[in-house]
Amino acid sequence: MALTIRDIAKLAGVSRGTVDRVLHNRGRVDPEVEQRIKAIVHECNYQPSRAAQQLSMRKQKIRIGFLSRIDQNGFWSIVIRNADRAERELSAYGITVEKRYFDYLSPGAQLEMINELASLEISALVIVPLDDALICRRLRELSESGVLVVLLQSEVTGFEPFCYIGSDYYVGGRTAAGLLYNFTKGHPDKILLLNGSQYLSSNYLRRNGFLDELAAYDAPFELIESGDITSDPEYAYHQARRLLENHPEITSVYTVPDSAASVGRAIQDTRRTGNVIHIGFGMTDATRPYILDGSLSAIIGHRAEQQGYLPFSILLDYFTSGQAPENRRILMLNDIFIRQNSVF
């Protein structure tokens, strides 16, 4: 016969309310009593029923804040679509998700959005954070107040979240360098490096990994670097096109941010398709045509579907059973796509 909360309370010599607070991490329980209850739960392999979980969540009225970047038909559209899928599943437990989106990188503007979500008495925050002291300080305050903070795709210097979900972007940069070295047969020559915003850790880690890996090869190369091209797709396109037109000697292009589709279009429009090697990030419907026509030689994907869904799945496990992820830093694999495996 399955163990009930009443059974656990009787074994522990406490009320059912005390057991419920321990099972759902609502505090106000003597640490010694809490450990006794948890030991019984572990020894008896207690599993709450789905109906009981749903009823408990509805009583708690849990709200999750979601603050994400947004784009059209790109990486973030996939993340958001899968976050929406997770939201529909959470609704069965009475959990609501408050969503806010940004398409420009301003710490002050992001801080306003965080404060707006915090004012709604959220229990957790899933956020694509900007790596800035303002954001770090506010996330620390939220975490210390009991809000579970899950970082998505970008980390914040000096802040330890409940969980981080992303990719190893330094390894992604090294992978890009290895691909470029192989495509150019060991002669990378003149490389156009298109930078992303330094407010996103993914960008500077991709750049550093790329340059460190190239430095390890005994192959001379020249580097032409842009500033931040992540403002919007049209800005990325025009900056890439200008540099390609001004530097006909360029033989390779490395696009650091998730702007590979815009850069692929610039390569097309400057008639450089097939004449330059182009490595970028983010396998999406927007990038696929440029891989197929050769304006992108290879794309490194980092599983946007999982990145959109997994934060909410982890939070659901925690809110329903108190189960925190064993690994608080969850890294997606770097998948490599070339023309031959991009038709699907």
What report would you give on this structure?
The protein has 344 residues and is α/β, with parallel strands linked by helices. It folds into three domains: 5-47; 58-166 and 304-332, 3-Layer(aba) Sandwich (Rossmann fold), CATH 3.40.50.2300; 169-303, 3-Layer(aba) Sandwich (Rossmann fold). Helix content is 47%, strand content 18%. Helix 1 crosses helix 3, helix 8 (169-183) packs across helix 9 (201-216) and helix 10 packs across helix 11 (260-269). The longest helix is centred in the last third of the chain and has 18 residues, at 304-321.
> CATH class of the largest domain, please?
Alpha Beta
* Helical stretch tally: 13
Query: Looking at the structure, what is the overall shape?
Result: elongated
Report the C-alpha radius of gyration, rounded: 24 Å
Mean pLDDT across the residues is 89
Q: Secondary-structure element sequence?
A: HHHHEHEHEHEEHEHEHEHEHEHEE
Q: What's the CATH superfamily of the largest domain, by name?
A: Response regulator
Number of DSSP E strands: 12
| SS-derived structural category | alpha/beta
Distance between the termini: 48 Å
In percent terms, what proportion of residues is strand? Answer: 15-25%
